[in-house]
DNA sequence: AAAAACGCTGCAAACGTTTGCGCAAACAAC
DNA sequence: GTTGTTTGCGCAAACGTTTGCAGCGTTTTT
């Protein structure tokens, strides 16, 4: 049994309340007493029991992080670890700790969230994705607990705080870059339809095409749900009578996969096919050819979401703020100009 | 203010203790009473306050995960996310939650660990690395809290539980594979010297070389600390009078980096240089050429560490168990046979 | 029919803190 | 020397549970 505040109090000949006040460095305690108590605390090796504190203060200094239903593939995508690092970085500065959901199905994750929120284990929540038919966001809204989502919430958009890129704009810029290189048959392989980011980027792609009077063909717009489907999609694209000359992939790993399928079919990047991607993670730089990628500043996405959340926890604001993190096209060697 | 056990008790005309016993489905409560109480709980939307429970039960059902001092590069290495997924998977089954350290320096991480352990926020700890001069393991040992390390502890090895690959053997097999292909000038770029895994794999490499009567040259054994150092090391290797014909990299990302430097110098893999790597993550499969890699079963490493820890938490064992996860060489296209 | 046993529930203490309030001592003012 | 103010600290309640023990009504044993 560890040493408690009472043990310290007894040994120092003061009341427990005094010890407590020494811990919080209350101005109501004289320096003399503080020194005395601190000495005893050191001698006895006292450390506060955070659970007891939480119980009375009703504040945990802990935030919960909701992961998206993690398939094996998404694990290899460095998005989550980097966003986590961003969150950690700010949380650490503010002496907040973090807890993760452990579930790998939607229900299991929802159960985790419920446990964190209702069990009063967290002061706030960061939801690291945004998707259709998600039950977590409405639930959190109902609970009234502070939370922020990474990505743009699909419903209650202006009631919830979020941190996001301007994905429409980002996709537009990527597309326009290809258009400027002379491409007009550009395919877009977005991610799973249910994620908001897929929709926004698709929209950006369409807007760019239309702005340049290029036809938006449905057969050029595909949604991949996993790595196998990427393979199928690439084959579909290659089989088209009007085969595209450029493909935009949803993230670096997916793009890498696209590249690998192309290679198997002796299609060279960028000579025979231009490729562009999102997130600009390390691999984009390292592979051959190095991939042109839209940097979405993932770390910053995490950092700002933690900042927004913790500020809200410390002082509930009257209206939900949201933050847009800028993106930047990182040009490398996977695209080449196209002459008809 | 949320509804408490007392509120439920009052409304159901029973004592708080009865409600508590209904929650834990105690056999001492009649079905009739249980039904009645459960009905009231539902009506009032009762949810247990976990902090209060933790306080009295002295058990948190929560485990702490210690990350290694995360440089930006290590983030892009999928090791951590996958091991985390393994941990999550088992933890979830056992209804354990998980907390992460947030620090990004050794001291900050140590502080996090102290806070988790002394603050009584966790029942046990998983340390996801093993390195020299680490203060965490000795500290945990002193505290007497259950913990397991992923990797082989450098000190107190047979007092602590760990889950590991046989890295000596794994490196030996990788090296022997190259030797069988006819290579005799094989370089090994290990990771940071302070990590135990670097030493073990180096040893395996040496053993394989010696077993085949090949000279172990110091200039063929290098330690990289970050991505830039990988670049330097590759240049050093290329500048040797006896340039190696094969390089073993410490993980897929590092190997990818090696490959990228080679490419810049017009050295083709596998024609001019064979390459082999560890961890067998997604990228190894996707890049060109696909990289031969030793699969270390990272997920399993995490899963088993969680299992070992949670079993220990539930029932303290008398001696520290440890688990060895098998490895398997996944042969792809980055190595070719070498004729002198 | 009294005694014993059993099944069910309530009482109250405990877990380790924080914090509002009150009180004594010390000091200043008159 | 009385009154008023300040300073420093202690008392006790509160946070929301769990759990050993006691008690009470009902059933079984003798």
Write a structural description.
Two copies of one chain form a homodimer. With 340 residues, chain A is of the alpha/beta class. Chain A has helices at residues 5-12, 16-23, 31-44, 50-57, 72-76, 79-93, 106-118, 136-143, 167-180, 196-211, 227-239, 252-264, 282-286, 298-314; strands at 62-66, 97-100, 124-127, 147-150, 161-165, 186-190, 221-223, 246-249, 274-278, 292-295, 322-325, 328-330. In chain A, strands 2-1-3-4-5-11 form a six-stranded parallel beta sheet, sandwiched between helices. The longest helix of chain A is centred in the C-terminal third of the chain and has 17 residues, at 298-314. Chain A is elongated. Chains A and B meet through helix 4, helix 5, helix 6, strand 2 and helix 7 of A and helix 4, helix 5, helix 6, strand 2 and helix 7 of B. The structure holds a DNA duplex (30 and 30 nucleotides).
Largest interface by Cβ-Cβ < 8 Å = A-B, 56 and 57 residues
Overall pLDDT confidence of chain A? 94
Strand order of the largest sheet of chain A: 2-1-3-4-5-11
* Estimated structural class of chain A: alpha/beta
Termini separation of chain A (Å)? 79 Å
How would you sum up the major sheet of chain A? 6 strands, parallel
Q: What sort of overall outline of chain A do the alpha carbons produce when their principal axes are compared?
A: elongated
Helix content of chain A: 40-55%
Runs of chain A in which pLDDT lies below 50 for 5 or more consecutive residues are none
